[in-house]
Amino acid sequence: MKIEGTPYRSVWVDKEDGWSVRIIDQTRLPWALDFARLTTVAEAAHAIRAMLVRGAPLIGAVAAYGVYLALRADSSSAALERDAAMLKATRPTAVNLAWAVDRMLAKLRPAADAARIRLAFAEAGAIADEDAAMCEAIGDHGMGLIADIAARKPGRVNLLTHCNAGWLATVDWGTALAPIYKAHNAGIPVHVWVDETRPRNQGASLTAWELGKHGVPHTVIADNAGGHLMQHGEVDLVITGADRVTRTGDAANKIGTYLKALAARDNNIPFWVALPSSTIDWTISDGVREIPIEERAASEVTTITGRALDGSIATVRVVPSFSQAANPAFDVTPARLITGLITERGRCAASAAGLAGLYPAFA
Ligand code: MRU
Question: What are the strands, taking DSSP E only, across the chain?
Fold first, then answer.
């Protein structure tokens, strides 16, 4: 997607040296557009853990490049297994991370040590390119939902999304935002309610930033405002992304997504989840019990970071110094609350039968 007219991806190989991996440092957005260079597997793991990159598809792609960077230092089988395991442990909920590392391992295990770096470079590039293509296809398949609403209702189509599931969370296009970009590009008048998404504010800092840079009308709301807006007819459609979807259609996503699904159900508003197939965990059926939920640092809840009036970036404490804080980073929306799934192969019911219809080889 474009930033002020210049096309970007969220991860790419440096064009000048031809081997190092470049990323946008998302911890600096929306205050600064800074880039970072990854040259070692330790730097790739740090970028994922410290959320310089985040979003399920993007951390999968960066982990794949992390395997490639690991092999540049040591292409032995022992090092491959050790570094792959280390990368997989960086974040637990998004299944794209393990999926990408396992795909790299399947390609690299049988190869001779000397061939591994070249193969890893090509495979990581293929994972990144395929992710961009899958997300664009999600946009094409999801855009019809927005077009249908526009056809029967005058004025703008009001969408609501949670967290950041735009191009910054993937390699390009995004998942939940891809249909919105496609609709906007096609001239359909869209407006997006952007949940701020405490505690790390991915909505306020990332979704709002990338929508704004693309020219999509949007309004940031406090996380608790969505239900009220739905009750008053201000939301036509909810689309979120996902970090892991079970074979039965339960979807883990950023904490707070489940509450939006409940509010949408109470108000008869369609609630869709957009995901590439790399987000589906075919091995599990019960999302609430089986999806591991990342517990992040309490400091993400007790503090908030922003730009002070003097222009400096400041982190301030917002809860009493004696209070404890808990920080579960994801929740699971049961399939029964999801109107449907938008994938690169089309739309389907959030159910085992729905997913099996699109992916018969996996089900
Ligand atoms: O913790 P994050 O920022 O990596 O979590 C990302 C999300 O949960 C997003 O909501 C997103 O939908 C999943 S990735 C497209």
Answer: 2-3, 6-7, 11-13, 21-24, 35-38, 157-161, 190-195, 218-221, 237-240, 244-246, 251-254, 271-274, 280-281, 303-307, 313-317, 330-333, 340-343, 346-348
Q: Which CATH architecture has domain 2-130?
A: Up-down Bundle (1.20)
Give residue-wise pLDDT tens across range 61-89: 999 999 999 999 999 999 999 999 999 99
User: Packing angle between helix 77-88 and helix 56-73, nearest 10 degrees?
Assistant: 150
Task: Locate the ligand 1 atom nearest the alpha carbon of residue 254 and give its number.
Answer: 8
The predicted model scores a pTM of 0.97
Active site residue 243: yes
In ligand 1, the atom with minimum distance to the C-alpha of 197 is 10
Residue 294 contacts residue 270 (beta carbons within 8 Å):
no
- The structure tokens listed for 185 are 């590009």
Q: How far is CA 281 from CA 74, 185, 278, 297, 343, in A?
A: 31, 32, 8, 26, 14
pLDDT digit string, tens, across residues 252-287:
999 999 999 999 999 999 999 999 999 999 999 999
What are the structural domain ranges in the chain?
2-130, 140-358
- Paired tokens of 228: 């009220």
Q: Ligand 1 center to residue 202 CA distance, Å?
A: 8
Residue type, 68: Y
- The class level of CATH for 140-358 reads alpha beta
Q: pLDDT tens digit string along 121-131?
A: 999 999 999 99
